[in-house]
Fold this sequence. Notes:
With 101 residues, the protein is of the alpha/beta class. The chain is built from four helices and five strands. One of its GO terms (biological process) is tRNA wobble position uridine thiolation.
Amino acid sequence: MSTLHLLSHSPFADGRLRSCLQLLGPDDGLLLSGDAVYALAPGSAPLHQLEQLPTHNALFALDEDLRARGLHARLPARVSALDYPGFVELCTRYDKVNAWL
């Protein structure tokens, strides 16, 4: 059963990203939104953690949040930027959606 994990908190504020990465299953995906997109900051430890994920774990980020934080221009190749309609459609591709509140 596949799960889309939604993260919106900064990876520098708490351990939610680390906990989420430990629980990702082989068919799971991860969507970063809000301050969680700071995990994609070039050279950061969270980005290194994300780059170590197996390629079968899809990575996504909300484009609006990337742009608001100045991270849209240097998006890693394996991360797909989504608008809000794309986010809604993405949720339908997974069996479950888990928000890390």
